[in-house]
Design a protein that fits this description.
- The chain is built from twelve helices and ten strands.
- The protein is α/β, with parallel strands linked by helices and 261 residues long.
- The strands form two sheets. The protein has a six-stranded mixed sheet, sandwiched between helices. It has a four-stranded mixed sheet with strand order 4-6-8-9.
- β2 (14-19), α1 (30-44) and β3 (51-55) form a beta-alpha-beta unit.
- The longest helix is centred in the N-terminal third of the chain and has 15 residues, at 30-44.
- The chain binds acetoacetyl-coenzyme A.
- The site of acetoacetyl-coenzyme A (CAA) has 22 residues, from α2, β6 and α5.
């Protein structure tokens, strides 16, 4: 498949997706989102890919949904098309992808760009990263999960302030508040993100999926149900050859060979 706005690179066992629309700071048009969903859907079932890195360029991960495209849309247009999610889903499909997706963010991650990064499983940020939900400054509001995911990640007070003022958060504050898992020097961002993805991809794939599902459900489930679901998933890993291999390898002081079985 040829993509106009994405660079697609499989370096087994990981896949690297680069949003490539630099002239508009990687603004997320409908077409960019369609390509992203297509590529991520394909990798969800591609055995060569055990984990994914989603990135942009040094100046922008993505500066939001495409304002030029949105400017002319009416209420009927956005409502009937269920924009920006789209009838077949975009952000929610990305969040639901079974493969872990790391957002490697340098530069601006604003509006839909911040929402896209938060729809990934975790964010590694470069020290020049800037996060924000500036929709209010252009007369609208976050529409792809910003009010919900940002609030869950950094708490009501900061999320409310960010959404109501449009203020940008720098990488240091983003790490301190838990929006990102780690901050690294810009020059080392892709190295760190790809190494992290490769590490995840080296583990037992069924177990990786169970862990991703369990952590993701923490936002949705009451604690007792989440703990129970976690315990049942933990118990089910004992049905895997990989659990036997992992524990045997530890006790035999060797590297495990996981077969994803
Ligand atoms: N959509 C379309 N084009 C955009 C864009 C966007 N979100 N962000 C930047 N661009 C374009 C600019 O129009 C400009 O194009 P021209 O060269 O043709 O004029 C080019 O990218 C470079 O941008 P700037 O000249 O503005 O660059 P800067 O370095 O001076 O400023 C910035 C950078 C602070 C990120 C600024 O571009 C900016 O504020 N962008 C808009 C951010 C924003 O409001 N995002 C939210 C969009 S709404 C949304 O996302 C809704 C949702 O929840 C789904």
């Amino acid at each position: 498949m040829n993509y106009q706005y994405l660079l697609v690179d499989i370096q087994e066992p990981i896949g690297i997706l680069t949003i490539n629309r630099p002239e508009v700071l990687n603004a997320l048009s409908t077409e960019v989102m369609r390509e992203l969903v297509t590529a991520l859907d394909a990798w969800e079932t591609d055995d060569r890919v055990g984990a994914i890195v989603l990135t942009g360029n040094d100046k922008a991960f993505a500066a939001g949904a495409d304002l030029k495209e949105m400017r002319v849309k009416s209420f009927a247009d956005v409502f009937l098309a269920d924009f920006p999610e789209g009838q077949r889903g975009a952000w929610s499909r990305i969040a639901a992808n079974r493969k872990p997706i790391i957002a490697a963010v340098a530069g601006y991650a604003l509006g839909g760009g911040c929402e896209l990064a938060m729809a990934c499983d975790f964010i590694i940020a470069a020290d020049n990263a800037k996060f924000g939900q500036p929709e209010i400054t252009v007369g609208t509001m976050p529409g792809a999960g910003g009010t919900q995911r940002l609030t869950r990640l950094i708490g009501k007070s900061k999320a409310m302030e960010m959404c109501l003022t449009g203020r940008f958060m720098d990488a240091t504050e983003a790490e301190r508040t838990g929006l990102v898992s780690r901050v690294v020097a810009l020059a080392g961002l892709m190295d760190e993100a790809t190494k992290t993805a490769a590490k995840i991809a080296s583990f037992s794939r069924p177990t990786v999926i169970m862990i991703k599902d369990a952590v993701s459900s923490a936002d949705e489930l009451p604690l007792s149900q989440g703990i129970l679901a976690e315990r049942h998933a933990f118990q089910s890993t004992f049905a895997l050859e990989d659990q036997k291999e992992g524990m045997a390898a530890f006790l035999e002081k060797r590297k495990p060979v996981f077969k994803n079985r």
